[in-house]
Write a structure and sequence with these properties.
By secondary structure, this protein is mainly alpha-helical. It folds into two domains: 136 residues, Alpha Horseshoe (Serine Threonine Protein Phosphatase 5, Tetratricopeptide repeat); 77 residues, no CATH class. It contains twelve helices and no strands. Helix 6 runs antiparallel to helix 7. The longest helix has 32 residues. The radius of gyration is 37 Å and the shape is elongated. The termini are far apart.
């Protein structure tokens, strides 16, 4: 009987102790589940505006860009959105994010044509696009240069009396010169390789796009005409171009180059 009672106490002890462990484990598990709810501050247009102003005051451009991007995305109806867009475009240009800057300026000019800074945005779009052309080698794709020329031409037509006009004209002249250099390089390549027909087509393209700028490119085009005539062994035609060069552009380096070209060994196809 004593043994049975002793055995019963042991069983009871095991059960009670096991229950305590289970209860303790459950209590810990339940404690892990109980978490304090997070308090998330509501982002408001006014609050974000204050943060943007503070970042600008502190000259923290990296934070300012993040906040501006957020404000434009989340508060598109804000009365400050036009200012945000222009400011973000300026920061992109400052950081050399040229593609982003160009699209931001261009969209601003399109979406806000009557805004006080629409002209500024159109001008800065040209600057951003032009700076992209400077990162591309002359002999590579000229699409960006051609697009910049179109932007410049459109700007000069719409706001020809703008105080940005002189700089836009300089950019336009530079882009045309770069494009002309590329086309001339290709022409010379064809002539050197004896691809006279291809050289003729390239010269026709050059005349179509650049002959309107008589004062700038006509002397060069006449020089190319002389080289093409020489490549065709048409000495009379080459001399005609030289005489025209001497008459219209006696001091042009292309006139002297044309004369010297007739003294050199003829091209061989």
């Amino acid at each position: 009987m004593k043994q049975i009672m002793k055995y019963g106490y042991k069983v009871l002890y095991v059960v009670v102790f096991g229950g305590i462990l289970v209860f303790s484990a459950c209590s810990k598990k339940n404690k892990r589940k109980i978490t304090k709810p997070e308090i998330v501050a509501e982002i408001t247009a006014d609050g974000l505006h204050r943060d943007i102003c503070l970042a600008q005051k502190e000259k923290n451009s990296a934070r300012e860009m993040i906040l501006l991007e957020q404000a434009i995305k989340e508060f598109a109806e804000s009365p400050h959105v036009a200012t945000y867009t222009l400011r973000l475009a300026d920061l992109y240009l400052e950081k050399d994010y040229l593609t982003k800057a160009y699209h931001m300026y261009d969209n601003f000019a399109l979406l806000h044509p009557t805004h006080a800074y629409a002209e500024y945005a159109a001008y800065k779009a040209i600057v951003a696009q032009f700076r992209q052309t400077l990162k591309i080698h002359r002999d590579c794709d000229s699409t960006t240069t051609e697009e910049t020329i179109k932007l410049c031409n459109n700007f000069m037509i719409k706001v020809f009396n703008s105080h940005y006009a002189d700089h836009v004209q300089d950019i336009l002249n530079t882009c045309k010169e770069r494009l002309m250099e590329k086309e001339t390089y290709i022409f010379h390549q064809y002539v050197r390789e004896g691809k006279i027909q291809s050289a003729g087509k390239r010269l026709a393209k050059i005349k179509k796009h650049f002959l309107a700028d008589v004062d700038v490119f006509e002397s060069r085009i006449l020089f190319l005409e002389c080289l093409l005539a020489k490549a065709h062994d048409d000495t009379d035609r080459a001399i005609e171009h030289i005489e025209l060069l001497q008459e219209k552009y006696p001091h042009s380096p292309f006139t002297h180059m044309a004369v010297n070209s007739m003294r050199s060994t003829p091209f061989k196809a």
